[in-house]
Amino acid sequence: MEKTTLEISLSTPDDYAGLVEIDHLVWNEQTTPAPDIRWDSPQDYGRQFPAGSQIVARCNGKVCGYIFYKDVFPIPSNLHVADVAMAVHPDFHGQNIGTELMLAVEKSAKDKGKSKLSLRVLSTNEKAIRFYKKCGYLEQGRLVGEFYLNGQFVDDLLLYKHI
Ligand SMILES: CC(C)(COP(=O)(O)OP(=O)(O)OC[C@H]1O[C@@H](n2cnc3c(N)ncnc32)[C@H](O)[C@@H]1OP(=O)(O)O)[C@@H](O)C(=O)NCCC(=O)NCCS
């Protein structure tokens, strides 16, 4: 699918159906330790992720990706760290949308006083690992054999980036 216009801004209720579509397409045993998660409806999604809680990318008006962050531990000594999660619609992979979303979340997190971003990625998710390393993330740890997926034990990589 061609990318012509890209708009990135906070989520609204109009985005929920597109965000549900992305989740149902991208999450599987290679990309998440909880591949069975399914949303019952856009409203169900909105209850978990209210408007404004995510940054959404839209190509020609179609929701094509999202990113958000949350506190790791809600204690004062850890408030400078934020944990990131993201996905891009498969029709739009490799078109720099993930990179644009990452830049947007870095700016938003910095504006909120965060100085370190962290994330967890399955060691089998090679595309995502390559993407994160390209974005400047480094490995800070590895939970060995943390998940049992597709008949094998899979490590969880802990990545971080100072912003
Ligand atoms: C990881 C992800 C967010 C990247 O988004 P994207 O919009 O495709 O990323 P970009 O177009 O900005 O890609 C930048 C780099 O990522 C890597 N990459 C992205 N898509 C790739 C693909 N399909 N195959 C191989 N490498 C890929 C490449 O290194 C690429 O650099 P290049 O352009 O020099 O080749 C996207 O693939 C995705 O949503 N994956 C499924 C969900 C997921 O795994 N999320 C992370 C869970 S921790």
UniProtKB/TrEMBL annotation:
UniProt entry keywords in alphabetical sequence: Acyltransferase, Transferase
- The stretch of residues making up the signal peptide is none
Classify the source by domain of life.
Bacteria
Keyword presence, Acyltransferase: yes
- CDD domains documented for this protein: NAT_SF (cd04301)
**PROSITE patterns, alphabetized:** GNAT
Q: Where is the N-acetyltransferase domain?
A: 6-163
| Molecular functions per Gene Ontology | acyltransferase activity, transferring groups other than amino-acyl groups
Mind telling me what this protein is named?
A: N-acetyltransferase domain-containing protein
Tell me what organism the protein belongs to.
Answer: Fictibacillus phosphorivorans
